[in-house]
Amino acid sequence: xxxxxxxxxxxxxxxxxxxxxxxxxxxxxxxxxxxxxxxxxxxxxxxxxxxxxxxxxxxxxxxxxxxxxxxxxxxxxxxxxxxxxxxxxxxxxxxxxxxxxxxxxxxxxxxxxxxxxxxxxxxxxxxxxxxxxxxx
Length: 136
Prior knowledge:
Blueprint: E1 2-5, E2 10-14, E3 22-25, H1 40-71, H2 77-106, H3 108-135
């Protein structure tokens, strides 16, 4: 039997003339996966939860950013709305870059895990100065 592992995480098993090929999904270590243990609803809840928290973070940052640009930077409302719209548009355009990395190099799980960690780190670092002023 000939075994070939492709980039999409599948193993084709069959004889040399290609008859009787069976596609089996594999886990992150390259072993055949068990559908009752891998993926399924646990992975779906992880991805949907992360996506939900991301949308909430974008909405919160957008609301706070418009207030900051108007009150602290003294821009008019129309200019502040344009700045926030450009910021949120940039965020959504960068998702195309993440999709390219996911499809070409990293895979869906590792891309979500990596950029989720980056987003959590950036939000934590940005909120750190506000917490430090409370204690000083």
